[in-house]
Amino acid sequence: MVKVTVCGAAGGIGQPLSLLLKLNPQVSELALFDIVNAKGVAADLSHICTPAVVNGYQPANKEDKTAIVDALKGSDLVVIPAGVPRKPGMTRADLFNINASIIRDLVANIGRTAPNAAILIISNPVNATVPIAAEVLKKLGVFNPRKLFGVTTLDSVRAETFLGELIDVAPTSLKGKISVIGGHSGDTIVPLINVNSDIASKVNKLSKSQYEKFINRVQFGGDEVVKAKNGAGSATLSMAYAGYRFAEGVLDSLAGKPTSTTTVPDSSYIYLPGVPGGKELASKSLKNVDFFSVPVVLENGQIKSFINPFESLKVTDDEKKLVETALGGLESSIKQGSSFVQGSKL
Ligand SMILES: NC(=O)C1=CN([C@@H]2O[C@H](COP(=O)(O)OP(=O)(O)OC[C@H]3O[C@@H](n4cnc5c(N)ncnc54)[C@H](O)[C@@H]3O)[C@@H](O)[C@H]2O)C=CC1
Ligand SMILES: O=C([O-])CC(=O)C(=O)O
């Protein structure tokens, strides 16, 4: 019996993500929360002949707290794609003013109502919204760093697709052969070719300019979609796929299926000092930057361990330079997120 709650379920990501979750037979209850149209989306999905019972929760007005509490009660996994997306000309950081308080308030409700749930944060800027969530949970005394995940899977999905095109290999064969670490915006995104994998020799044959173009395309893949949608939002369908891919891993781990050890697992933006060996990684290789996306091994809906990229994936000198650049951007976003909560009343 697994209950999953989606906050922001009626949005561009929320709807297709909820559809994918409805198709997962492990989900027994799917609670869809949004400030608009949650009941409509729930009624629609509830006609699909899979086991999950779907309910929509929508507050009657701004003061109504019962909808969110009912949506979260007993939840094992909460996925959050709530908040505003970018328009052309904006950076993800420009979303902070609106999305920071949305995440703070939703996570405070999770901390009070479903403190044992695994939390997957999709809302941007991820580099800051995850530190916001951590700080809120700390303030409430219920922070379990093993259960807080910033969803960066879309960067891996893009890396697999774009590299597959470039080296003429099926993208489906690239899962685990290229990892993406760091954060989730522009030059904080660091794709790593896993040098032990069989693609390393093919990648080595790429020219410097082809390699650099590939890195840039992964780092700025989100902008490609924002530009093409021309004011109508950012990636939604590819994000729903990516968010589901990560959520499915959490659901599998809740069902007792271990993360595969034969390939490198997907990364997630996590609070490193909260997992064994994380503090050491941060101090030795990341100038004490505490939030960082690394490949994570899951067990029972939480992080069991992570793969240290510097030890297991043999980061090249070029990749180390990318990490160095990423750390600057991450540090300021993390500070911005944490101080926002420190100055807030929950
Ligand atoms: N992590 C990642 O890789 C990605 C993150 N995103 C981010 O995901 C977020 C959502 O994007 P879209 O679905 O395209 O936006 P959208 O505007 O289509 O949907 C957002 C939904 O959130 C709802 N919402 C707003 N405030 C809420 C609250 N307090 N409680 C519950 N629901 C609330 C809205 O009513 C709307 O239905 C954006 O911040 C976007 O930047 C987008 C793509 C990739
Ligand atoms: O670019 C955006 O604003 C949405 C996003 O995070 C992505 O597509 O990676």
Describe the structure.
- The chain has 346 residues and is an alpha/beta fold.
- It has two domains: 148 residues, 3-Layer(aba) Sandwich (Rossmann fold), CATH 3.40.50.720; 184 residues, L-2-Hydroxyisocaproate Dehydrogenase, Chain A, domain 2 (Alpha-Beta Complex), CATH 3.90.110.10.
- The chain contains 13 helices and eleven strands.
- Strands 3-2-1-4-5-6 form a six-stranded parallel β-sheet, sandwiched between helices. Strands 9-10-11 form a three-stranded antiparallel β-sheet. A two-stranded antiparallel sheet has the order 7-8.
- α1 runs parallel beside α10, α5 crosses α13 and α6 runs antiparallel to α8.
- The radius of gyration is 19 Å and the shape is globular.
- Bound molecules: 1,4-dihydronicotinamide adenine dinucleotide (NAI) and oxaloacetate ion.
- Oxaloacetate ion binds next to α9.
- Structurally, the number of domains stands at 2
Reported CATH architecture of the largest domain? Alpha-Beta Complex
Distance between the termini: 31 Å
The CATH topology label of the largest domain is L-2-Hydroxyisocaproate Dehydrogenase, Chain A, domain 2
Indicate the overall shape.
globular
Average pLDDT over all residues: 97
Order of helices and strands: EHEHEHEHEHEHEEHHHHEHEEHH
β-strand amount: 15-25%
* Radius of gyration from the alpha-carbon trace, in angstroms: 19 Å
Percent range of helical residues: 40-55%
Number of strands: 11
What molecules are bound to this protein?
Answer: 1,4-dihydronicotinamide adenine dinucleotide, oxaloacetate ion
CATH superfamily of the largest domain, please?
Lactate dehydrogenase/glycoside hydrolase, family 4, C-terminal
The CATH class of the largest domain turns out to be Alpha Beta
Task: Summarize the biggest pleated sheet.
Answer: 6 strands, parallel
- Largest sheet strand order: 3-2-1-4-5-6
SS-derived structural category: alpha/beta
- Count, helices: 13
Task: Report the uncertain regions.
Answer: none
